[in-house]
Design brief:
Amidase signature (AS) enzymes
C-alpha cells in the first residue's frame, strides 16, 4: 500500500480538482497517491465532521490502480451522495429501511463520472431520502458544519458540502430537489449549481416528481471545478465555460422569500453588499420580482414533497417492512400529510410546474439574472430541524429557512449560490443567482467574475486541511 504523509495529503487537499488532476497529468503523483492522500484526509478530519457515511477505500484503490480514462479531472477522488447508485456500493439514502446490499447497475450519470476518470472514495452522508435541509438521520451520522461543529452543514447533500469545504475531497456529487445542492453550498461556503431541468443525462430511475424537481451536479470549492462537473454530465457535448464574459448583465434583486418574509438582518446586509459589488463591476442592478404567486409556488413544492414522502412509506410497506420501525417520524409525517391532500391540491401543484416556466421566461425577457439570498438565515444549530421534531414545527422551519430555493425546482430553471458573505460569527452566507432555462453558462460566467472580484479560496473553515488559516499564508 502506498504511504502518504499527513502534511503532504493536506497540502494536496488545499488544491482544487483541476490542480490535483494536473499533478497526475505531469507525473508528479500517481492517481493511487492522490487517492491515498484523500483517504488520509478523511481518516484525519472526518471523525470531527461525520460527512462520510460509507467509506469505499478498497474500491477506490482498485480503480486508481487501474488504467483511467484521460481527461481534465482524471484521477481525482470524489464522494457519491448516499442515494446515488454505484456498482459495488450500497445506496442507503440515510434510511434504516435500506440494507447494505451493493448495487450492480449504473445510470448514465454515473457512467459519465467513470468516463471522466474520477475515483469514488465513498458515500457522503444525507438525511433520510433527502427529505430535510439538514443532515441528521436517526441512523447517523449527524454531520457537522466545518465552520462550526455546533451548526448544521445543511442538506440534503450535507455530507458532500462539509467534505468539500473541509478539503477532504475536491469534488462531491449533490442532488437538488428543493435546494439540496444550494443549501449545503451556502451553509458550507461553496459555490453550488443547480442545473435546469433536462440539462444532465439520467441520474436515477424514472420518477415523475423527482424528474420534474431534481437537478444533479458536482459540488466543489472553485467555479472552474463546478463548470467542469456540469459539462461532463450534459446530454450533448458543449464547450466548458472557463472564465467570465465581457457582457454586462441586467440583474434584478429581491430580498423577500416566496412566502413574502424578510430574511435575517445578516442576509439583508449581504444582499446589499452583493448588489453594490455587481454594480461596481458594471452590471445594471435594480430591484424587481417576477409576476408569480410566491406562496402558491411554495405550497406546490410542499404538496409534491409530501407525495415523495408518501412514496417512501408505500415502498417500505410493499417490501414487507413496518414504516413505524423502518422510517423516521418526518418521513411518515409527510406520508400522512399527502394522505390528507385532495386531487385538487395535486392538480394545483402541477399547475404551478406548468405556469412557472412561462412566467419566469417573461421576467427574464427584461432581466438576465435574479439575485436573492440563498437562505433566509445563517446555518441552524444541530437539532433545530431534527427528523423527530413535531411535523408542523419542522415544516415551518424547513420552508422558512429554505424560502427562496424551491422556485427553481418548480420552474426547472438553473440557479447558483456563491459564498460572497460571512456573518458576525464567521458562518458562510450564500447569495443566489438564478436565470432562465438553458442559461447555466451565463450563471457560470458571472460566477467566474465574482470569484475573481471577491475571492473565497483563501477562506477555510475551522475544521479543514488549512485549519481556518488564510490560504494565502499557508
Amino acid at each position: 500500500m502506498v504511504s502518504i504523509r499527513r502534511d503532504d495529503a493536506f497540502t494536496i487537499g488545499r488544491l482544487d480538482a483541476h490542480d490535483q488532476a494536473a499533478l497526475v497529468a505531469r507525473g508528479e503523483v500517481t492517481a493511487t497517491e492522490l487517492t491515498e492522500a484523500a483517504i488520509v484526509r478523511i481518516e484525519a478530519l472526518d471523525p470531527q465532521l461525520l460527512s462520510v457515511s460509507w467509506p469505499a477505500f478498497d474500491l477506490a484503490r482498485r480503480r486508481a490502480a487501474a488504467p483511467l480514462p484521460e481527461g481534465p479531472l482524471a484521477g481525482v477522488p470524489y464522494l457519491l451522495k448516499d442515494s446515488l447508485d454505484y456498482p459495488g456500493l450500497p445506496s442507503r439514502a440515510g434510511s434504516a429501511s435500506r440494507s447494505d446490499a451493493v448495487r450492480a447497475f449504473a445510470h448514465p450519470y454515473v457512467r459519465r463520472l467513470d468516463a471522466a476518470g474520477l475515483v469514488p472514495v465513498g458515500k457522503s452522508a444525507m438525511p433520510e431520502f433527502g427529505l430535510l435541509p439538514v443532515t441528521e438521520p436517526l441512523i447517523g451520522p449527524v454531520t457537522r458544519n466545518p465552520w462550526s461543529p455546533a451548526h448544521s452543514p445543511g442538506g440534503s447533500s450535507g455530507g458532500a458540502g462539509a467534505a468539500v469545504a473541509a478539503g477532504l475531497v475536491p469534488l462531491a456529487h449533490g442532488s437538488d430537489g428543493a435546494g439540496s445542492i444550494r443549501i449545503p453550498a451556502s451553509a458550507c461556503g461553496l459555490p453550488g449549481l443547480k442545473p435546469g431541468r433536462g440539462t444532465t443525462v439520467r441520474v436515477r430511475s424514472r420518477h415523475v416528481i423527482e424528474d420534474l424537481l431534481v437537478g444533479d451536479s458536482l459540488m466543489a470549492r472553485s467555479v472552474r471545478d463546478v463548470a467542469a462537473g456540469f459539462a461532463l454530465a450534459r446530454p450533448e457535448a458543449a464547450p466548458t465555460i472557463t472564465g467570465p464574459s465581457l457582457r454586462r448583465l441586467k440583474i434584478a434583486y429581491a430580498s423577500r422569500t416566496l412566502a413574502g418574509a424578510e430574511p435575517h438582518e445578516s442576509l439583508t446586509r449581504a444582499l446589499e453588499e452583493t448588489v453594490n459589488l455587481c454594480a461596481r463591476l458594471g452590471h445594471e442592478v435594480r430591484p424587481a420580482w417576477p409576476a408569480i404567486d410566491g406562496p402558491a409556488a411554495e405550497r406546490a413544492e410542499q404538496v409534491l414533497w409530501s407525495h415523495i414522502g408518501a412514496d417512501c412509506v408505500d415502498a417500505v410497506a410493499a417490501a414487507g417492512q413496518d414504516p413505524a420501525v423502518a422510517l423516521e417520524p418526518w418521513t411518515r409525517a409527510l406520508g400522512e400529510i399527502a394522505a390528507g391532500l385532495s386531487h385538487a391540491d395535486l392538480e394545483a401543484a402541477y399547475g404551478q410546474i406548468a405556469a412557472l416556466p412561462r412566467q419566469l421566461a417573461a421576467f427574464f425577457g427584461d432581466f438576465d439574472v435574479l439575485l436573492t439570498p440563498t437562505l433566509s438565515a445563517p446555518p441552524p444549530r444541530i437539532g433545530e430541524m431534527a427528523p423527530d421534531t413535531a411535523p408542523e414545527t419542522l415544516m415551518a422551519r424547513m420552508f422558512g429557512w429554505c424560502g427562496y430555493t424551491p422556485l427553481q425546482n418548480m420552474a426547472g430553471t438553473p440557479a447558483m449560490t456563491l459564498p460572497l458573505a460571512w456573518d458576525g460569527d464567521g458562518l458562510p452566507l450564500g447569495l443566489m443567482f438564478a436565470a432562465d432555462r438553458g442559461q447555466e453558462d451565463l450563471l457560470l460566467a458571472l460566477a467566474f467574475e465574482l470569484e475573481a472580484a471577491a475571492p473565497w479560496a483563501s477562506h477555510w473553515p475551522q475544521i479543514s486541511v488549512n485549519g481556518g488559516r488564510d490560504g494565502r499564508a499557508a
